[in-house]
Amino acid sequence: MNGDSVSKRLQKELMELLMSNDKSVTAFPDGENLTRWLASIRGPDGTVYEDQQYKLSLEFGPNYPYSPPNVRFVSKCYHPNVDTRGVICLDILKEMWSPLLTVENLLLSIRSLLAG
């Protein structure tokens, strides 16, 4: 995809996130750079992560949405699928990525990972 296509897709996803009724996940571009976002995930209820707010960074490459974004926890998160650098081991961030997935889908999947 070219830069304009990536920008249009990210603008569309931002609007969907802003209009979403699910406030357990949020994400916004980091300043003027539309390819770098900051996200927030509320820890799932009934887990050790409950009442915690986790910050994540997302970086979208020139092939997005055909390649997954680079996502990592900025906040410390003690979970077997999150390494000490905040890198997340999740299949949809690798071989199971689909261009049909959105930022909201991705963040909700990471939140579900914390619940599991």
CATH class: Alpha Beta
Count of DSSP strands: 4
Structural class: alpha+beta
Question: What fraction, in percent, of the residue positions are helical?
Answer: 25-40%
Q: Can you give the mean pLDDT?
A: 96
Shape summary: globular
Domain UBC core: 5-116
Organism: Schistosoma japonicum
Keywords: ATP-binding, Nucleotide-binding, Transferase, Ubl conjugation pathway
Protein name: Ubiquitin-conjugating enzyme E2 C isoform 3
Descriptive overview:
The chain is of the alpha+beta class and 116 residues long. The protein has a single domain, classed as Ubiquitin Conjugating Enzyme, CATH 3.10.110.10. It has a four-stranded antiparallel β-sheet with strand order 1-2-3-4. A hairpin with a 2-residue loop joins strand 1 and strand 2. The longest helix is centred in the first third of the chain and has 17 residues.
SSE topology sketch:
Blueprint: H1 3-19, E1 25-30, E2 33-42, E3 53-59, E4 70-73, H2 103-115
Antiparallel strand pairs: 1-2, 2-3, 3-4
In short:
The longest helix is centred in the first third of the chain and has 17 residues, at 3-19. The protein is built from two helices and four strands; from the N terminus they run H-E-E-E-E-H. By secondary structure, the protein is an alpha+beta fold.
